[in-house]
Amino acid sequence: MAGFRTLRRVLTGGAVLSAAAWALRGVPAELGARPLTSGPGRADRMRRSPRFRDGVFFNPMPEPVTLMTAPPVGVLAELFRDRHLRRPPGPVPVRVPPSDPPPASGLRAIWYGHASTLVEIEGRRVLFDPVWSRRPSPSQLVGPVRHHPVPVPLAGLPEVDAVVISHDHYDHLDLATVRALTRAQEAPFLVPLGIGAHLERWGVPAHRVVELDWDEEAEVAGLRFTATAARHFSGRAFTRNDTLWGSWAVAGAAKRVFYAGDSGYFEGYKGIGAAHGPFDLTIMPIGAYSPSWPDVHMTPEEAVNATLDLGGKLLLPVHWATFTLATHPWAEPVDRLWREAKARDVPIVVPRPGQAVDTAAVPAPDGWWEMLGAPRTVGT
Asked: I need a labelling partner for 372 at 20 to 30 A (CA). Which of 162, 182, 189, 284 fits?
C-alpha cells in the first residue's frame, strides 16, 4: 500500500510539473529579445542616442523619476482591500465599430479598450498599441483579466496603414497580437528604438519595422510620424530600460494627432506642442496612477494640463476601464477627468469601447460609466 501511495505522489507531482511546463512554454518568447545583442546596426544606433547611458535608456527630464523594482508593501496590502471597487459594477457597453471607409479628409477615432485605438486620419488608418489578449502578461494564466471583450476580433480589423507602439510593457506590446497582425496585415510597425529586436524575434520582417529615436521622423502612407518624448520606462523581464519608450505625433496634410502612450507629466509637452501641434486630437492616458509611482503615469488632471500644453483641441482618454493596473476605483479616472475638463474648459469625448468618434461631430459625454449600477459588493 505504501508503494502505491509513493507511486501516486510521484505521478501526481509529475503531472503538476508537466502542466506547469506546458503553461509556461511561451514565456521565453514573451520576454522578447535583448536589443544590444540583436545586431550591430541596432546596437550602434542605441549607443548613439542622447537618451542612452551605461547600457540603458534614461529619462532626461530634470525632475526625479520614481522607478520601482518591486511594489511597496503598502500597495500590496491595498491590492487585497476593496477589490470590488476596481471592477466595473456591470457589463461595459461595447459597440460594433463601423466598417465604412475612413473619411477622406477628416479625422475619426475608435477606442477598443485600454490604450488600443484606431485613428482614421485623412483616409489612412493608424493602429496604436494594439493588445487583443485576455491578459497583459507573459502568461495568460496570471495577471489582470480584461473587463470587457474587444469590440472586434483581429480578423475583423480593416486594413491599416501603420501600427504604432509606444513602449514594450505587456499592456502596450502584445506578442499574440503582433503575430496575428503580421500574418493578416501588411502595414509597417513604427516603434521606439530597440523594440524592433522584439518584433523581429516574433517573426516581423525587418523591412516592416521602423525604429525611431525621439525627434526622428518617418513618412508612411502620406502621413508624417514623429517619435516624441515621454516620461516612463521599459522592460518585459527583470532587465529594465533596454528599449526606448515614447509618444507620437502624426501629421497629415491638415489634421494632426498626438498619442501620449504611457507617461508621467513633464514640462516637455509644451515643446512638443510648439514643434508639432496644435493637435486636432490628443489621446491621453488617465488611469493606473498611484502616489507610489507619481512620475511615470499621469493623473486625469495632469492629462488635461498636458493637453493644454500641446494645444490639443479634443482629448480622448485611454488607459482606463479595461484592465485593473492600480488600486484606484474603476471609474475614478474618468470622473476626475470630466470634472477637471469642465473646470478648465477642455473639450473631451468619452466613447464606449468600439464607438467611433468623428472630430467634426463630437458627442457630449453622457456618463455611460455611471449607468452600469452601484459598485459591486465584496464577493460578487
From this structure: 284
List pLDDT tens digits, range 147-175.
999 999 999 999 999 999 999 999 999 99
- Beta strands (DSSP E) in the chain are 52-53, 56-57, 107-113, 116-121, 124-128, 162-164, 189-192, 209-212, 217-220, 223-228, 247-251, 256-259, 281-285, 315-318, 356-358
Residues with Cβ < 8 Å from 69, sequence gap 6 or more? 240
Per-residue confidence at 130, pLDDT binned at 50, 70, 90? Answer: very high
Count Cβ atoms below 10 Å from residue 218 Cβ, excluding itself.
15
- Which residues are paired to 209 by β-bridges? 189
Distance of CA 267 to the CA centre of its chain: 22
Name the least confident of 43-52, 291-300, 334-343, 365-374. Answer: 365-374
Residue 125's DSSP bridge partners are 120
Angstrom CA distances, 11 to 2, 7, 17, 51, 237, stand at 14, 6, 10, 53, 32
CA proximity to 71, closest of 320, 288, 300: 288
- Cα separation of 332 and 337, whole Å? 8
